[in-house]
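chain below, 308 aa
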Amino acid sequence: MRKTDQSKKRRGLFWLLWPLMIIACTLILNVIINRSFEVTYYRLFSEKLSSDIRIALLTDLHQTVYGEKNSELLDEIRGQSPDLILIAGDSINRRSPDLDYIIDLCRELTDIAPVYYGLGNHENEVIYGDDLNIEMLEKRADELPLDKEDLSPLIEDDRLLTELGKMGVHVLQNQAEEVDINGDRLLIGGISTNESSFWPYSGNFVTGFAEADDSFFKLLISHRPEPVMRYIPDYDIDLVVSGHNHGGQVRIPGIGGLFSPDEGFFPEYDGGYYRTHKLRMIVSRGLGNHSLFPRVFNRPELVIIDIN
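prediction:
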């Protein structure tokens, strides 16, 4: 009887522990997988462009390092030979920002191709002292003579902007710049407001951006995808690139991402290609993580976009 009782206890303990062992092994495996990244390719067509353009898109690095001084990431980007490099925000962490990290990375990137940088909420908190939400902006507007879409009076720490500017990085905050790539004209804009502050503090800029000369290929960097798809799905913008949602953090096979801070459970814009009316959007799952909870079945990605 004692042996039988002991066998039953062992079997009961086994059935109790094996799910925990599977979960632990899965998490360990994903931690290992997340030390590297994959390359995801998208191919688009536009009648506005007469030649091929290749774009490298980096989002949500959160100070993640691939190889010594990001050598693995930089080697991959060089090997892809992009005509243009876009950074769609959250390269640093708001609570322990390492400005040297992104400055050193951008110094190398500018030797590969022109770099256009749209800020994310983590950069906003470092530069402005908080994310660009409606409560913060309205409070500060009462204190400062603030033109609603010129956010420069709000800057509390300009070190990142100054250093990126010195090395030729084009930082876009409610701004757009014309660029010639292989003889084709592009208009690249950037915004980083969230849904609550989109209209008061970015809406007029985006409307003007969409109404600009239609001979330009109009490319908008918006760290968050939700304001774009909620408010301007029928605007005349050729491509929007976004990140922010980290692929939903946990990817459920056949279903998609599990959670994002802005959309909650099962976010619609967790990563991939989206099209509605005139607007096309590519959302990257990102290259890093700032949460204690690891990415699961959600390998970091470098996005390469080939147009034409």
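The first helix runs from residue 2 to 33. The chain has two domains: 1-33, 39-307.
thats it, cya
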